[in-house]
Design a protein that fits this description.
Blueprint lengths: L15 E3 L8 H5 L4 E3 L4 E3 L6 H13 L5 E3 L5 H6 L3 E4 L2 E3 L13 E3 L6 E3 L6 H9 L5 E3 L9 H8 L2 E5 L9 E3 L5 E4 L2 E5 L8 E5 L3 E5 L3 E3 L4 E3 L9 H10 L7 E4 L5 E2 L3 H16 L2
């Protein structure tokens, strides 16, 4: 639990604060940029929320924080914030919240679909989230993008008996299904598992309905520059291979990039997304 005694002095004065346990995962300022900001090495409260909707969103950040580093004296919107997760993105796709320290605050996503609900990467196995997923029909499949963001996957298996799917090259033991090779695998009519090695040997993306691309740590949005990007500094396997995997994504249509780390990115059409990806590749090849 966040401690007022350990709060950063630079926080804007008021009920919400961030303390020194912050690991700078970016969850709070990605989720609520109007309240929180990146201070270089940690996050800060940039502006205290005033309206009820702002207090609710800031309270959602309290719940989503993987290290419980955000505190508040204002509990007025906490019940509503708890009920807000999974938080809708578009259609049947939602952000789970409740990020896990074991995954350095990586975001995970819930897809509610008639053929069986899907979790993309593992959130923290928080009681309110487990109950919310149960009310929505549980989880039949969990797709893990890479070995860094597996968090509480075993707890979700125990609760929902979901099949966990991952590329074998990342060697997380005990899962129900491992995929191999570099060719895309159709998990269902509307789900395509796309191996994208580079960040790690077994990194992979999941494409849903030719619209939503869940990218793990492979690709993300840069809201300041309004573009797509990837991290050479945070590459744990092979940057040249990651670039080749990014090129592979040009073969697919999608409008959304939903990453584990970094901001989401939405284009008006698959054609415009392809243009954004082509531009990103030009920049990234020059690094």
């Amino acid at each position: 639990m966040a401690q007022r005694a350990h709060a950063f002095a630079e926080n804007t004065a008021g009920p919400f604060f961030i303390d020194s346990s912050c690991i700078d995962c970016g969850t709070c300022y990605t989720l609520v940029p109007e309240v929180f900001r990146d201070a270089g090495g940690h996050s800060l409260v940039d502006r205290q929320p005033t309206r009820a909707i702002e207090r609710r969103r800031a309270s959602m950040a309290v719940l989503a924080c993987p290290t419980a580093s955000i505190g508040t004296d204002d509990k007025s919107e906490m019940a509503a914030a708890t009920a807000a997760f999974p938080s809708p993105i578009e259609g049947e796709v939602s952000f789970c919240g409740y990020t896990a320290e074991a995954s350095f605050g990586a975001w995970s996503y819930f897809i509610q679909r008639p053929a069986g609900n899907v979790l993309m990467d593992s959130p923290r196995a928080a009681g309110p989230l487990l109950s919310a997923l149960e009310e929505r029909g549980g989880v039949s499949t969990m797709v893990l993008s890479h070995r860094d963001d597996v968090a509480d996957h075993a707890a979700f298996r125990r609760r929902f008996s979901c099949d966990r799917v991952m590329h074998r090259a990342d060697r997380v033991p005990g899962l129900e299904r491992y995929l191999e090779g570099n060719d895309p695998v159709r998990l269902a009519d509307d789900l395509v598992f796309i191996p994208t090695p580079g960040h790690t040997p077994g990194s992979a993306c999941l494409l849903y309905r030719d619209t939503f691309l869940f990218t793990g740590d492979h690709l993300y949005g840069n809201p300041e520059a309004g573009c797509l990007s990837a991290s050479k500094a945070m590459n744990w396997h092979s940057w040249p291979e990651q670039l080749r995997s990014l090129e592979k994504l040009l073969d697919f249509e999608f409008r959304w990039v939903l990453p584990g780390h970094g901001a989401s990115f939405r284009a008006e059409s698959p054609r415009k997304m392809r243009t954004r990806l082509e531009r990103a590749l030009v920049r990234l090849r020059a690094l």
